[in-house]
Design brief:
CATH class of the largest domain: Alpha Beta
Strand order of the largest sheet: 12-13-14-11-3-15
Mean pLDDT: 96
Number of helices: 10
Shape: globular
CATH topology of the largest domain: Gyrase A, domain 2
């Protein structure tokens, strides 16, 4: 792989945005970027992505996730409006607390699966996956008649993940941050760099996110983190698909899209139909739950030699008939096997079901298994 990315092979002009940490990622040796939420997302630094995985599970990593753009909702009706967007009952979300939520359409489809932070009684940030939630929210607001302001603030998160993330964060911010409960946050500063620090992450490991609130100071924040992380063998990485698949974490646009509903992909626990408040898609989701789904996203073990992360969805067959598709697949060094997810009809979704998948190496046997593959009770990120 090349030592650095040739940006002319990625973009033309300034249409695709760079993060406040972009120069720092280049200097750290990032060799490639993808486009996510109209921004450049670093995908790797080490020639062997297994090394990045090992840094994550053994030490501590930093990952530029500024592409998790914030949709900020404020105004007198901000709580009622935000509650309208998601099936999760936000009366259970206190100021200073976050929630993993889904945003649903009128037919129950998944618009996005963001992390929501409640900064005030009527002040929310929604850290979105790769879909245009800002435009969706503005459209909903236009038709709702509610008094809300919807903007994209100058906020850019870094993820600090891994078993040594706590001593690193203590070194940077002191005990207050380290003592945060899972999915809680604090507004603070690193010297005079304004940030919000959360106990969240997209890794399945214990970790934090540092939300930078001044985009002019990205390089400064990056360098402070890297300097403090030296005793803990900190490494810059891209997304660890190995670890997120082991953990049962879904990737919007791959494992779920607008064409899927929460019950199909195992996120039915986020749909709280018993709440008094209305939300977009409530009746559709009630009907779906009552009649049951016809397909499910399941875990699979894939036989054969170690496979690279899939670049396309692979057809899944029951005999000669195509019945579904592999959405994510990768080799797990920890488990010493290929693992992934498959969307299949419910009649093929029971653990132990044997199917085949058309992988790049040819047709390979797969077996439906429970997910997550590692740490099913999420003890690690909660620790």
């Amino acid at each position: 792989m090349p030592a650095s990315a040739d940006l002319m092979t990625i973009q033309r002009g300034a249409r695709v945005r760079r993060s406040p940490f972009f120069d720092a990622t280049l200097h750290a040796g990032c060799w490639g970027y993808t486009v996510y939420n109209h921004m450049l997302l670093p995908i790797g630094y080490d020639d062997d992505l297994n090394e990045e995985y090992r840094s994550l599970v053994n030490d501590v990593t930093v990952w530029d996730v500024s592409v998790e753009r914030q949709v900020e909702i404020t105004g007198p009706d901000a709580f009622a409006f935000t509650n309208l967007l998601t099936p999760r009952d936000l009366t259970q979300c206190k100021v200073g607390q976050g929630k993993y939520v889904v945003i649903t359409s009128e037919d129950g489809g998944i618009v996005n699966d963001p992390v929501l932070l409640r900064l005030g009684e009527n002040h929310f940030w929604i850290a979105v996956a790769d879909s245009d939630v800002l435009l969706w929210a503005k459209g909903v607001a236009y038709g709702s008649g509610m008094k809300v302001e919807i903007n994209e603030p100058d906020v850019s998160p870094l993820q600090i993940q891994g078993p040594k993330s706590k001593p690193l964060m203590q070194r940077l911010f002191g005990d207050e941050v380290v003592e945060l409960q899972y999915y809680h946050f604090v507004e603070t500063a690193l010297d005079d760099i304004p940030v919000v620090v959360t106990r969240t992450g997209w890794s399945g490991e214990v970790g934090f996110e540092i939300y930078l609130r001044d985009g002019s100071r990205g390089d400064e924040l990056w360098q402070r983190v890297m300097q403090a992380g030296k005793p803990y063998r900190i490494a810059a990485t891209g997304p660890s698909d190995i670890r997120r698949i082991e953990a049962g974490i879904l990737n919007y646009g791959i494992d779920m899209t607008l064409a899927h509903n929460p019950f199909e992909v195992g996120l039915g626990w986020l749909v709280q139909l018993e709440q008094d408040a209305d939300f977009i898609g409530k009746e559709a989701l009630r009907r779906i739950k009552e009649r049951g789904v016809t397909r499910k996203l399941v875990g699979v073990e894939i036989e054969g030699e170690p496979l690279d992360l899939n670049m396309t969805r692979w057809p899944v067959h029951a005999g000669a008939a195509r019945v579904g598709e592999i959405t994510s697949a990768v080799y797990s060094p920890r488990l010493e096997k290929n693992i992934g997810y498959a969307m299949v009809p419910v009649e093929h979704a029971e653990p132990g079901t044997r199917l085949t998948a058309a992988a790049p190496v040819g047709e390979v046997p797969i077996t439906v298994v429970p997910k997550p593959f590692v740490d099913p009770k999420k003890d690690l990120p909660k620790s």
